């Protein structure tokens, strides 16, 4: 994506198990340091929630959240939950 000239590099996956989520977060960390364009990664569904809440710790430039209770994608958390998770994670650094 970067060599094709993309402004941001996004990958969204549907994990089969927790190992898939862990692999995505590892790849996120590696890609965000190796590439110059912003990297955006997330896992879908219930298993993927942790990637949406902690992605920034691993180098994901952003996540997607819903302003209410109607997600536009499986596993999309409400914005309040994302803000609280980011606040807690930022205070633990």
Outline: globular
The total count of helices amounts to 3
Instruction: Determine the strand fraction and express it as a percent band.
Output: 5-15%
Helix content: 40-55%
The biggest sheet amounts to: 2 strands, parallel
Q: Nearest-angstrom radius of gyration?
A: 13 Å
Give a count of the beta strands, DSSP E runs of length 2 or more: 2
CATH H-tier superfamily: Aldolase class I
CATH C-level class? Alpha Beta
Q: How many domains make up the 3D coordinates?
A: 1
- Mean pLDDT value: 93
Multimerization state: single chain
Read across the widest sheet, the strand sequence of neighbours is 1-2
CATH topology: TIM Barrel
Distance between the termini: 31 Å
Provide the succession of SSEs.
EHEHH
Low-pLDDT stretches = none
Structural class: mainly alpha
What is the annotated CATH architecture?
Alpha-Beta Barrel
Describe the structure in your own words.
With 93 residues, the chain is mainly α. It has a single domain (8-91), classed as TIM Barrel. 47% of the residues lie in helices and 11% in strands. The chain contains 3 helices and 2 strands. The chain has helices spanning 18-34, 45-58, 79-91, and strands at residues 9-13, 39-43. Strands 1-2 form a two-stranded parallel sheet. Helix 2 packs across helix 3 (79-91). The longest helix has 17 residues, at 18-34. The protein is globular, with a radius of gyration of 13 Å. The model has no long low-confidence stretch (mean pLDDT 93).
Please sum up the structure shown.
By secondary structure, this protein is mainly alpha-helical.
